[in-house]
Every structure is written in structure tokens, then in C-alpha cells.
Write a structure and sequence with these properties.
This protein has 270 residues and is an alpha/beta fold. The protein has two domains: 2-63, no CATH class; 68-264, P-loop containing nucleotide triphosphate hydrolases (Rossmann fold, 3-Layer(aba) Sandwich), CATH 3.40.50. Helices cover 46% and strands 19% of the residues. The strands form two sheets. It has a five-stranded parallel β-sheet. A three-stranded antiparallel β-sheet has the order 1-2-3. Helix 4 runs parallel beside helix 5. The longest helix is centred in the first third of the chain and has 16 residues, at 68-83. It is elongated. The termini are far apart. Keywords: ATP-binding, Nucleotide-binding. One of its GO terms (molecular function) is ATP binding. InterPro entries: AAA+_ATPase, IstB_ATP-bd, P-loop_NTPase. This is ATP-binding protein. Residues 123-268 form the AAA+ ATPase domain.
Length: 270
């Protein structure tokens, strides 16, 4: 003990500190904690009074560093930008340039505009844009993600087929990306656009079909209560025919949870 005291004494001497003693207490104006009032003297005999709230100082230090949630959000934003796959024909597309020709197309455009304007505040978390090919579902879905990204949200546009390819790429030894990380990021993204669900592969019976439906189900499960836009040419019955009655039913159920479904009719603009 004496050795420790001597060592502490030398440290204080080297730092120019003479004597330290507690002379009272006070209440911190910010947090209300009881803070000791200390008096210290230097080697020249000058006396200083100090009273530092360690609790407030610790909080100030922590505030200068991002918390775990902010770091995860930043990671998800980087992931979404790096791994999204947008067809060249969609790049730069906006909601305003989409020209409607049918009542259902007008409904789709108006719904999308409202979804962007009131993102996170609409009664429905998600949208299902269903209907035949070439009516502009992907156009408006992409435009939504692009506009919300400009507003600072993390968004990702990816077709179901490209998503499955991304999952399969993690099975290669050369990549640092893992399937676990992909699903963690999918769950953190503010808005996921899952394009052309149901058209991701030809109806291959067997192990691949089971594997693919399992991964798609996991996406819909993770995004059940989170803002998601699905585009598809399939009806609920088509999903059951493609993925099986049980698996297809689960996928449809999770897609429709908290979602507004719009069936779009019009001519094929492709």
C-alpha cells in the first residue's frame, strides 16, 4: 500500500499537483446528480476549486460517437447502394414522367405519389403492384426508391431473380459477403423494392425451387411490417401454383400484411 501511495505522490508531483481534498458537494444543474467539490493546490501554493460531473461528461463523450443503431443504419445504406441491381432502362425514371392511360394506372400513380409524400405515415406499410407486363409497375417502384433516397432514406431496388443470384454468390469462397449479412441488411433498409417476384426462375421442380421459395419467404417474413414495394405479374393463386399451396400461401400472406394491393391494367409499353 505504501508503495502505491508513493507512486501516486510522484505522479501528482510530476503533474504539478500538490494536494487534493473534498470540501463539499453540489447538485448538477443538468442531470441533478450529486457532484463533489474538490480543492487542489499546485507546487507554488495556488489553490483551485473544481467540481466536474462525471455523468454529464461521459454522456458528452458518448454523444460524439455514433450509437449502434446509427452504425447499423449507415451499414445498411452502404449495402443497398452497393448491391442493388437496376436495369438501365429504369435509371433516371421519375413519377411525374409516367403517363397514365387507364384508371388503374392513374390509381397506381396517385398511390405512389401519396406513398412518397407521406412515407412512414400511410395506413399501409407496403404496396403490391400487380398486373400484366409493360404497364409501368417497375418504373414507378424504382422512381419511389430513387426519390426517397434523395430524402435521406436507405432504399434498395432488386429483382427477385437478382436477389437469389446475390444469395448464391455468398456460397463462393472468394466473397466476404455472407447470406446472414444480406438478410440482416434487408431487414434494416428503410424501403425495399422487390421487383418481379414470381418471375425469378422457370418452374423448375426439385431442390432449386424449394431453395428459392424458402429465400423469398424469408424476405417477405423479414419485411412483413416494414415498407416494401412488390411488383409482380402473378395473382395469389399463381403464387400457390408456383411455390406450392403451403409455401405460396405463406409468401402471399406476408406480402399482403399491411399492404395495399393494386391490380394494374393497360397496354404493354415495352
Amino acid at each position: 500500500m505504501q508503495g502505491v501511495q508513493e507512486g501516486l505522490k510522484k505522479v501528482m508531483q510530476n503533474a504539478g499537483i500538490g494536494r487534493i481534498r473534498k470540501i463539499g458537494e453540489r447538485e448538477c444543474e443538468e442531470c441533478g446528480s450529486t457532484v463533489p467539490i474538490m480543492e487542489r493546490s499546485d507546487r507554488e501554493g495556488n489553490v483551485f476549486e473544481e467540481s466536474l460531473c462525471l455523468s454529464c461528461e461521459t454522456n458528452k463523450t458518448r454523444s460524439r460517437f455514433p450509437d449502434k443503431g446509427e452504425l447499423l443504419r449507415a451499414k445498411a445504406q452502404g449495402f443497398s447502394i452497393k448491391y442493388e441491381v437496376v436495369p438501365k432502362k429504369l435509371l433516371g425514371k421519375t413519377v411525374s414522367e409516367y403517363q397514365t392511360e387507364t384508371d388503374s394506372e392513374k390509381l397506381m400513380k396517385n398511390t405512389i405519389a401519396d406513398y412518397i409524400m407521406n412515407f412512414g405515415k400511410t395506413k399501409h406499410n407496403s404496396l403490391i403492384l400487380a398486373g400484366q407486363m409493360g404497364v409501368g409497375k417497375s418504373h414507378l417502384a424504382y422512381a419511389t426508391a430513387a426519390e426517397l433516397r434523395k430524402q435521406g432514406y436507405s432504399t434498395m431496388f432488386i429483382a427477385a431473380d437478382d436477389f437469389l443470384k446475390l444469395i448464391k454468390s455468398t456460397y463462393e469462397k472468394e466473397t466476404d459477403l455472407s447470406e446472414k449479412t444480406i438478410f440482416e441488411m434487408i431487414q434494416e433498409i428503410d424501403l425495399l423494392v422487390f421487383d418481379e417476384i414470381g418471375a425469378e426462375y422457370n418452374n423448375q421442380k426439385g431442390e432449386y425451387e424449394s431453395w428459392a421459395s424458402e429465400k423469398i419467404l424469408k424476405v417477405t417474413d423479414l419485411r412483413e411490417d416494414l415498407p416494401t414495394i412488390y411488383t409482380t405479374n402473378y395473382s395469389p393463386a399463381d403464387f400457390e401454383g408456383k411455390y406450392g399451396a403451403i409455401q405460396g400461401g405463406r409468401i402471399v400472406s406476408r406480402m399482403q400484411a399491411g399492404a395495399k394491393r393494386i391490380v394494374v391494367e393497360g397496354r404493354d409499353r415495352r
